[in-house]
Amino acid sequence: MLSDVMEDYLKTIYQIQARSGPPVSTSAVADALEKTPPTVTSMLGNLEDRGLVTREKYKGAELTPEGETVALEILRHHRLLEAYLAEHLDYSWSEVHDEADALEHHISEEFERRVAEALDDPVVDPHGDPIPSADLAPLEDDEATPLTAHEVDDRVVVSRVSDRDRDELEYLADAGITPGTTLEVVDVAPFGMVTVRTGSDAEQSLPESVAEAIYVRPATDAAPAGGSTEVSDA
Amino acid sequence: MLSDVMEDYLKTIYQIQARSGPPVSTSAVADALEKTPPTVTSMLGNLEDRGLVTREKYKGAELTPEGETVALEILRHHRLLEAYLAEHLDYSWSEVHDEADALEHHISEEFERRVAEALDDPVVDPHGDPIPSADLAPLEDDEATPLTAHEVDDRVVVSRVSDRDRDELEYLADAGITPGTTLEVVDVAPFGMVTVRTGSDAEQSLPESVAEAIYVRPATDAAPAGGSTEVSDA
DNA sequence: ACGACGATTTAGACTAGCCAAAATTAATAA
DNA sequence: TTATTAATTTTGGCTAGTCTAAATCGTCGT
Ligand SMILES: [Mn+2]
Ligand SMILES: [Mn+2]
Ligand SMILES: [Mn+2]
Ligand SMILES: [Mn+2]
Questions:
Q1: Does the N-terminal or the C-terminal CB of chain A have fewer CB atoms within 10 Å?
Q2: CA A95, A96, A100 angle in degrees (round to 5)?
Q3: Do residues B88 and A88 make contact, with C-beta atoms less than 8 angstroms apart?
């Protein structure tokens, strides 16, 4: 029914909308998908005709509930695939994203079910991003804040890490920083470099670009430092 | 580089060529892919321009070595996926084909490697079809003959079963007839219906359309009746 | 209030893939 | 040998998705 291309537009609009709220500008979509603005304008027209987005000329687009459901469906596929690849095919968390991007449009609902079952209905992917439920109910907003917004002596737990940059993910994996890791902010230098203590010993200095990809929540008092994987409630 | 569509043409030409030999007619490809003859003529022109097939006008097409390599690559993906779905995601052999068709163009070489590894480099898929090796060396011809070509009292081992028709596969699964099963031909009726004994007790009558989808080889003397999965050499 | 500038849309064009109708060719039958 | 017929190719046209260049809009600074 919907082409791969349309699904990618809807997924992208959803993700921009989730970060910056509507309306989503033509150029933001063009940047994210590496297309030209006229191309995006044209496709937004198609999506509007199909009732998947609403649009105000020269302002931007916003997903309709139908459009959001499609976006959640693709996001569910993507994140289930990431989790499956990591869990059952020995992929590292820096490798899963591209493979999931290629497969997310092509798996059947049956495949989705069986993968979810093999993983026992996971609620987060390897980067800590929430996996939409099978009924595609809207995701609740994320309470996490970027590590760059924190101050010295803050104790925080890593909630999720942006999966956009493979190199950053490898860097963080080496540093032992993954979702669930407890961090203590040791220093915030000019230009946004953040130094954190992981566990009780190792210290890591993170360039701003890396630190702002790490989303964290306040550590609960009793939490020991280290890399557990549990996710607390909101 | 190559589109999904082109890959499907090459795979299809390979399979027709394997059964009937070159040249492969325009209409044979059109039938297999459910396209019109002009569409196929046009695409064969593209494939010829890319050096993947050779063509003689009004006669048909034949894969070049490069075209055959691409076809084997796709076939390897398809059959590895079928094997993986059956082995690790609990698909039945009647379900795997469509899912593999959808995914075969979209997996990475890394995914291919990991799936092959998870399966310990399998040599046949769930239907008994050979899986091309990682180096894509040409497959040797198949010695198996259709069950319809056999006579009463012949004892044979099922080598492979055409995976084209889901209903037939379910029928055969119920009848306990899978690759490796030893059969004894009990009766050949007019209109090609074949009755076989599986194991030492059950008898099954198979309509011609089903019987001609079953490819068999002579049973070695010591082989007991039943559903073992080993594959003998050529 | 107005002009400049950046963002957006419109206009026009291109490719891949597809089909229907018409023309052509090869094979077969008279 | 010639005529019929079936397969194939050619012709022309359609949609989806993309781009460049040109026109237009909205905003922001003066
Ligand atoms: Mn789904
Ligand atoms: Mn992810
Ligand atoms: Mn491959
Ligand atoms: Mn198969």
A1: N
A2: 135
A3: yes
- Which residues in chain A show pLDDT less than 50? 223, 225-234
* SS3 state at A68: helix
Using the CA of A59, which nucleotide's C1' is the nearest one? C8
How remote is the CA of residue B113 from the centroid of ligand 3, in Å?
8
Among A165, A177, A179, smallest CA distance to A94 is for A165
CA–CA dist A232, A168 (Å, integer): 25
Q: Scanning every residue of chain B, which has its alpha carbon at the shortest distance from the alpha carbon of A112?
A: B89
Strand, coil or helix: what is A52?
coil
Query: pLDDT digits over B126-169, tens only?
Result: 999 999 999 999 999 888 999 999 999 999 999 999 998 999 99
